[in-house]
Amino acid sequence: MPKVMRIVLMGPPGCGKGTQGKMLEAKWGIPQLSTGDMLRAAVREGTEVGLQAKAFMDRGELVTDDVIVGIMRERLAKSDCQGGYILDGFPRTQGQAEALDQMLAQMQQELTAAVNLDVTDEDVVARLSGRRQCRSCGTGYHVSFKPAKQDGVCDSCGGELYQRDDDNEQTVRDRLRVYKTQTEPLLAYYENKGLLRNISGTGSIDSIFERVIQAVES
Length: 218
Ligand code: AP5
Ligand code: MG
Ligand code: ZN
Prior knowledge:
single chain; 218 residues; alpha/beta; five-stranded parallel β-sheet; three-stranded antiparallel β-sheet; 8 strands; binds magnesium ion; binds zinc ion
C-alpha cells in the first residue's frame, strides 16, 4: 500500500458508501467508520445516545452535530485508526466538516480524498427499497442487485438479515431532501481543498470499486 489512506465517502442515501467502504476496508486493512452503523448499534444497546438518535433517524433527519462529533472524536482516537480509515456518512454538515478538520489538525493527520458517489434519485429509491443488512457483521445485501446465497442469511457470518426502519419510501424521500439541503453543499467544501473525487456510482459494484481505487491511488 503506497500511503496511509484517510478517505471520506460521500453521496446520497443508498449511493453505495457502505458497500464500497466494506470493500476498501478489506483491501487496505483499515477500518470503515460508519456513523449510521454506530448509531444503529447504540439504538440496539439502548444507550443514552441511541435513545436520542432513534427519533431523528426514523424521521430521516440528522442527529445533532455535538452527538456525532463526540462519537467520532472517541472513535478516531482508537489505535486501529493509526494506519488510516474510511469515513462513511461523516461529515454531513458544515459544522461536522469543520470539527473534523480540527481533529485532524490535532492528530497531525491529513485527508487523502473525499470520494463522491454520484447516483440518481431513482437509483436511490430502487436500492433502498430492496436493501438488507446483516445484524451481526453489518454486511449489506440487496434482494435483486446483491442477493445473499440463502434468503435472509448472511454469506459472511451466517447472521440474520434485516430491513432498516428508515428504508421505507417516505423516509427515503425525507433523507434525500435532508441530503440535498444539508450535506450536498459539503462537496464544494472539499472541492475547494482540492480533495474531491467525483465518481459515477452507477454500474456494477465491482466496476465502481475499480473507479474508486483509481481515483484515490493515482
Ligand atoms: P446512514 O446509515 O449513513 O444512511 P445513509 O447516508 O442514508 O446511507 P445508506 O447507509 O442508506 O446508504 P449507503 O450509501 O451506505 O448505501 P449501501 O452501500 O448500503 O445514516 C442513517 C441515519 O443516521 C441518517 O438518516 C441520520 O439520521 C443518522 N446519521 C448518520 N450519520 C450521521 C451524521 N454524520 N450526522 C447526523 N446524522 C447522522 O447501498 C444501498 C443498497 O444498494 C444496498 O442494498 C446495496 O447492496 C445496493 N447497491 C450498492 N451498490 C450498488 C450498485 N452499484 N448497483 C446496485 N445496487 C447497489
Ligand atoms: Mg450505509
Ligand atoms: Zn454477517
